[in-house]
Amino acid sequence: MTLFRDDLNDTIAQIQVSTIRQFDEEVSAIPDMVKLTLGEPDFNTPEHVKAAAKEAIDQNFSHYTGMAGLLELRQAAANFQAKKYGNHYDPEDQVLVTVGATEAIATALTTICNPGDAIIIPSPIFPAYIPIIQEARATPLFMDTGVNDFVITPKMVDDFIAAHPDEHFKGIVLNYPNNPTGVTYVADEVKALAACFKRHNLWVVSDEIYSELTYGSDHVSIANYLPDETILINGLSKSHAMTGWRIGFLFASKELTAQMKKVHQYFVTAATTIAQKAGIEALANGMDDALPMRAEYQKRRDFVYKVMNGLGFKIARPTGAFYIFAKIPAGYEQDSMAFCKDLARKNHLAIIPGTGFGAEGEGYVRLSYAASMEKLQKAMDRLTAYIHDPANQH
């Protein structure tokens, strides 16, 4: 028998596996389960992108690329940012190709965090940022955005920093369109936040992976207003339904990119060559591949929003991504984990407890509408049956 040694990195030992993944695995064992749990587009990768990958395989593109990724892909990514969002980056030394946005997050935060630094985490938020900060011996400090329907304002940031006078604030994580709330920002809001972050000398780790999925207005990147202090994260997972291809991007100043490149090198060496070849095709010839998906997501959002509103769920209307973040109606179990487990057990519908996105998410649930209308209709029927059952009311 092998004895487990307990002399591991103590920070790692304290990190928990994502509640989202744990809950998804737990409910997957229940028969006839309708799952609206993970942020996974239900669309397939566009055919022209798959064809480019097949061609790359046939042409034996099976060797390492340079650490920063193929220059042609970095050029395509820089061009995409310039045309879509007005951000201008030199592909030679201001763009890194990463193994998905997740590795981009890890590389960015590892690069800027020193032990003792504090990073502002607007919460509720996708949890991936938090362990990376902790692994760097920095401190994530959670700013509750629920008090303002999940919209960050400069005053909220000013007040939060003033309330922690002994902390050395190094940066802030900005994720928009937001997971889990679906909230995003218009130009005036982004400009005001940029001025605030500049005033406080903060690095901004801006995760804009859902930038192509906005409803009612185009995405505005904070890098427009704060180019030197912004570490911009994006990728192909959501815009081109390429989650499994694992292609992300980091955009930053030349000086910062040189430092992040070192972290990236020792984390992963380089992203997969075949996936990079597919990425070139996606960005060069599929600039608007997200548009038909976005139109369908908006229909789904409107449907789910209407049904859940009618059932008494309070929802800050999502203007991006593909999530509904809803307050559990009064008179029902307010412990979000208990609510979701009960719903899964009784009505075979799986949605994510709000606590999966931080303590500030308690009393809420997240639903992904990246699913077919048929599946969403079945889900809403099951949720309606659960809410209308007097046995579930407290």
UniProtKB/TrEMBL annotation:
Q: So which cofactors does this thing need?
A: pyridoxal 5'-phosphate
- Which keywords are on file for this protein? Aminotransferase, Pyridoxal phosphate, Transferase
| Enzyme class name | transferase
The molecular function terms of the Gene Ontology recorded here are: transaminase activity
Residue ranges occupied by any Aminotransferase class I/classII large domain in the UniProt entry: 32-383
| UniProt xrefs under InterPro entries | Aminotransferase_I/II_large (IPR004839), AspAT/PAT-like (IPR050596), NHTrfase_class1_PyrdxlP-BS (IPR004838), PyrdxlP-dep_Trfase (IPR015424), PyrdxlP-dep_Trfase_major (IPR015421), PyrdxlP-dep_Trfase_small (IPR015422)
What top-level branch of life does the organism fall under? Bacteria
What is the E.C. number?
Answer: 2.6.1.-
Q: Which residues form the signal peptide?
A: none
The similarity comment for this entry is: Belongs to the class-I pyridoxal-phosphate-dependent aminotransferase family.
Provide the protein name: Aminotransferase
Species for this entry: Lactiplantibacillus daoliensis
Q: What is the lineage of its organism?
A: Bacteria, Bacillati, Bacillota, Bacilli, Lactobacillales
